[in-house]
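Narrative of activities, Objective 1.

The group set out to show that a structural description can be obtained from nothing but a protein's sequence at a throughput compatible with the screening campaign. Below is one input-output pair from the validation batch, recorded exactly as produced.
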Amino acid sequence: MAKVIDKKLILISLLFFNSFLFAIAQKNNIVLSFSNIQIEDDYWFRDNMINFQLEVNRNITDYIGIGGYVGFGLYEEWLFEQNINSHSITFLDVTNSMHYGLNINLHILPLLFKTKMSRFDLYISGKTGLISLYSSKDENIIPKRGNYFDYSLMGGGAIYLSKKFGLFVEAGNKNFKYHKGFNANYGLTYRF
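Output recorded for this entry:
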């Protein structure tokens, strides 16, 4: 348990340190998001993972932004038991996950219009990273404990209610061992 907490603290500290370094220029963005990821294994097991995520981005040009993200998720773990003629699953506990990685954003409006549209942002976002599931160590637990490669390609849009603060929605395709397909994120965005 101490290793998990140490890992979380290191990742969050690095993300905040990067945001501090980026604050020198006014091309930065912090995003707080929520998503509900449907996790599944085979055709009979489906459940939801609630995920909260912090993302820090820096626009290196008017069109391209790069950054990193770290997130915390909650999900249910189940015990799978199979007999000769049947199988059953039993709820065990609610446990957590960590989501972390890198992202790149391609901002579409600066490519289409010469005038700056400060209240709107349309973008395509690619993310790649890991999802660490902290399920029990028993062999029959679903989903299984481990680190899983994660990647997504999403389209998003933000509307800024003031010069710096806005709301955003993004949707697209997300893939890792227990989820392949549609996913949506939404939340708050702050630029500085």
